[in-house]
Write a structure and sequence with these properties.
Nucleoside Triphosphate Pyrophosphohydrolase, seven-stranded mixed sheet
């Protein structure tokens, strides 16, 4: 399984979203992400994720790296730095969204794969 994940940054803060009830790790915070569907590129998947789950269009997308999931064997997460212009996302797939300074992420109960991503991308922020 392949997953596209976007780390959006604005004014020194990153966007994290709260996983809804009824899904594994409900209530954990994560970077917006979704599973790649057949026929889509990673960039298409990321664009759909931001549009369908946050109602925002993507601007610049830059690959950051790929990581193996700690939650699901055989899952590879492709992470991108993603920008969008809208000030406030309209949620449709998450319970909440927050802009958080990178240094304060440890105060949130992060989805395990997001913890891995934070460790790997510290040098970027």
């Amino acid at each position: 399984m392949l997953v596209a994940c976007g780390v959006a940054e604005r004014e020194g803060k990153v966007l994290i979203c709260k996983r809804p009830s009824g899904v594994p790790y409900a209530g954990c915070w994560e970077f917006p992400s979704d599973v790649l569907e057949a026929g889509d590129s990673l960039e298409d998947c990321l664009e759909k994720t931001f549009f369908e789950r946050l109602s925002v269009g993507l601007g610049t997308v830059v690959p950051v790296g790929a990581f193996d999931s700690v939650c699901e064997k055989g899952c590879r997460i492709f992470t991108f730095r993603a920008d969008f212009r809208e000030e406030k996302p309209v949620l449709a797939g998450y319970d909440a969204a927050k802009w958080v300074s990178f240094n304060k992420l440890q105060k949130f109960r992060l989805f395990p794969d997001s913890v891995t991503i934070v460790k790997e991308i510290k040098k970027i922020f």
